[in-house]
Amino acid sequence: MIYAIIAIVLILLIALIVGLVKGFTRTKTWATEYLFTVVLSVLIYALADTSEMSAWTAFSLKIGTAVAFILVFALLSERGKALFRRCIAAAQKRSYYEMYGDREENKLQILDAIELGDRKAYKRLTKRKFKEKRGAVGVADRICGAITLMIKMVVVFGMIAAVVLVVLDFTQLPFVEENLGGIYSSGVWESLSKFCMDAFVIGIIFLAIRSGFRSGVVSALWVLATLALIAGAAYLSFWLCFNVEAFQNTAASLNGSISGFTSAVADAATGIGLELTAEQVAQCVLGAGIFIILFIVLLIVGVVVSGIIGRAREGAAFNVVDGIFGAVVAFAVATFVLLFVGAVLYTLSDLEFMEEFNSYMFYISSKGVQKPATIASVFYSNNPLNSWEFIVNLPMRGWFN
């Protein structure tokens, strides 16, 4: 444990130094935005009573609040950086004019040194630097940068540690209890573990919105179109080789050239119970070759189209509109996936192997009352899809006897 504490202190010290050097304006603030979103979202609905609300109302309020915090903190971060940049630029401009006389005098002294042939004076004067001072705002910028980067390190390593500990706890392996039992039984873990699933859910939504805004809806649609084209190219390649006579004849000629290889593959397939002839192996090889050619063509087209999209996003208006639609689409997809997966998992919630998972989706309050996870419950026990007949009738339970 002492080594872990030393490592954490060293990491925070490095983050402090790097943050002081970079400053707030050149430091990414996503970790601070995420931390504040999780803390405030959980705090609000840990205090508010939503038990009388319908599932859809509670879902809309909790997820809407989290999304609102994500957007507000992102806006505050960008506006804060812009304010720092303006104030620093103004301070540097002021400093420039304050040193204007010294600059002009230095230029005259350099000219005099050149006329007199005084090399020493020339070198000394040309090496003299006039750096515009950033003033008190510059100091504040560096202090905020150090704090932001230290928070980022805490969030990153905290997230990694939480994921590792939760996954290991799910395994219920003996060595986990032997080596990490002290951590799981500690008061710190008992206090923080009840919010792990909330942080996980908000993290997915946070990532979806940020990545969707950065990539944009056009890029996202093009990725989906590319995947569809690749799947279509694979289907077309093998369909041609198995259904078009000209390609079948080509495969037969290929089989004659590599008969040793095709026969060996066919024999190996027969050995594992797969009925496959040497001619069919040759058709598969030809189909794979055609697919590779088509894939290379699609790859080149993809690079060209991606470049065009990148050029289009250089326009500020297009970039903002495309990013907003991208964030909306990414958020909608991530939310639907969370709702569906959570509803499916809840149909298995009473099975024995889900007991450990349930311990993170429910917690015991200070009054000894069992409560659902503050935010994550809208995707699990309070999921609006839990009452859908389609979800209830899924054959998942039969898979686990």
Could you explain the architecture of this structure?
The chain has 401 residues and is mainly α. 79% of the residues lie in helices and 1% in strands. A two-stranded antiparallel sheet has the order 1-2. Helix 1 runs antiparallel to helix 6, helix 9 (196-243) crosses helix 10 (245-257) and helix 9 crosses helix 13. It is extended. The chain starts with a helix and ends with a helix.
Give the helices and strands, then pairings.
Elements: H1 2-22, H2 30-47, H3 55-98, H4 100-116, H5 119-126, H6 135-171, H7 174-184, H8 187-193, H9 196-243, H10 245-257, H11 259-271, H12 278-312, H13 316-346, H14 355-361, E1 362-364, E2 370-372, H15 389-392, H16 396-399
Antiparallel strand pairs: 1-2
Helix pairs in contact: 1-6, 2-3, 2-6, 2-9, 3-6, 4-5, 9-10, 9-12, 9-13, 10-12, 11-12
In short:
Helix content is 79%, strand content 1%.
Please state the average pLDDT score.
85
Shape: extended
Strand elements, count: 2
Which structural category do the helix and sheet elements fall into?
mainly alpha
Query: Residue share in helices?
Result: over 70%
Order of helices and strands: HHHHHHHHHHHHHHEEHH
State the distance separating the first and last CA atoms. 43 Å
Main sheet strand line-up: 1-2
Residue stretches low in confidence (pLDDT < 50, at least 5 long) are none
How would a textbook summarize the main sheet?
Answer: 2 strands, antiparallel
